[in-house]
Amino acid sequence: MTATKGLEGIVATTSSISSIVDGVLTYRGYDIDDLASNACFEEVAYLLWFGKLPNRIELDNLKQKLSEYAPIPDALISQIKLYPKKQNTMAALRSAISALALYDENAEDDSQEANEIKAVKLQAQLPTIVAAIARIREGNEPVAPKQGVSIAENFLYMLTGEEPSETSVKALDQALVLHADHELNASTFAGRVTVATLSDIYSGVTSAIGALKGPLHGGANEAVMKMLSEIGSVDKLESYIQDKLDNREKIMGFGHRVYKNGDPRAKHLQKMSLELGEQKGNTDLYEMSVQIEELITSQKGLKPNVDFYSASVYTQLGINRELFTPIFAISRVSGWTAHILEQLSDNRIIRPRAEYTGPTNQKYIPIERR
Ligand SMILES: CC(=O)SCCNC(=O)CCNC(=O)[C@H](O)C(C)(C)COP(=O)(O)OP(=O)(O)OC[C@H]1O[C@@H](n2cnc3c(N)ncnc32)[C@H](O)[C@@H]1OP(=O)(O)O
Ligand SMILES: O=C([O-])CC(=O)C(=O)O
């Protein structure tokens, strides 16, 4: 038995949800470029869950369900108010989603029908929870979700209590489409491993949130913004990046386990970052990002991943850094739950082996002789 570090190149399951072949990302066979330009996030969530694009009636029904399920229990809001305000937002989200299960009387119903409803509920409630966490951290009361609007619009509205601009809603909606699923990434794998023990869907999503939080995965978008803030201005950029490279530190938002010639989602976020900057009359963040990309690509041959330009996009939407990874979760919960449903439809416990490298032939020594 020989271990492969990080399971690189190991095919661990079959899946018909999303694929990455020769650098092209598809959801259920639809190219991400096509979906990013044409589909709204709710259509994409339907596609991931049910395997086909919805017709008008199916989409309207889904949107209605998402609106209906969006409010969260008052008891959960009270609990969130007790969380320490300065702790990591993903840690708060992880705790809140775990607690949410306690308020769902069907949490332990493992029928496919019940799990499909729970997938839609989780998708509907996760944005409300993130917005509530954000408001409570700032000392504000949560804003109740609006009925009959998209997830992107509702989330921006719940953050501030004000109507978001059409441009902001469109940009966030597109970002949600781009982040919705990504084959067997670490958080999706974590979710699948959890439910493969026949644990419940809330446990699967809680595991996935824990995995997404890390800076080598979804947490990289916050780390990118931290880097941009530390750099501060274009004139300091080159020495900052050079120092990091000289110290063999990783530059967040670059590199990818699967894409070696670039992440197909990054160009959409880059374009969005420029457009938002131009609309605001300040493209500084975009310019800095482009220069970092030029440096890293020329020196290390690494390309930006989905997390790199999303940092400047969210900042230009007026969103605080600590909400970037939770926004990733707002989108990715569609993919996580689609994978969980797929795992449960043809389940076998996931239990690989480890190559043992520890000592052998040890003999027990009584404690007084150690
Ligand atoms: C949504 C997402 O999860 S996208 C990924 C988000 N994560 C990041 O942006 C964090 C920065 N990037 C990384 O840490 C990595 O590229 C990962 C985690 C994405 C992929 O990791 P792996 O597939 O294990 O790549 P690996 O670490 O083997 O990289 C190969 C080489 O490139 C280097 N490298 C990879 N990424 C970077 C980076 N961002 N900055 C500097 N060097 C890097 C590695 O140090 C390694 O060099 P070496 O061969 O001299 O040791
Ligand atoms: O696939 C991965 O390893 C990480 C990633 O890009 C994602 O989850 O979107």
Automatic annotation (TrEMBL):
GO function term, MF aspect, one? citrate synthase activity
The record's listing under Gene3D superfamilies reads: Citrate Synthase, domain 1 (1.10.580.10), Cytochrome P450-Terp, domain 2 (1.10.230.10)
Keyword terms, alphabetized = Acyltransferase, Transferase, Tricarboxylic acid cycle
Pathway(s) this gene product operates in, as recorded in its UniProt entry: Carbohydrate metabolism; tricarboxylic acid cycle
Q: Which Pfam families match?
A: Citrate_synt
Which chemical reaction does it catalyze? oxaloacetate + acetyl-CoA + H2O = citrate + CoA + H(+)
User: Would you say which domain of life the source belongs to?
Assistant: Bacteria
The record ties this protein, via InterPro entries, to:
2-MeCitrate/Citrate_synth_II (IPR011278), Citrate_synth-like_lrg_a-sub (IPR016142), Citrate_synth-like_sm_a-sub (IPR016143), Citrate_synthase (IPR002020), Citrate_synthase_AS (IPR019810), Citrate_synthase_bac-typ (IPR024176), Citrate_synthase_sf (IPR036969)
Protein family per UniProt: Belongs to the citrate synthase family.
Q: What is this protein called?
A: Citrate synthase
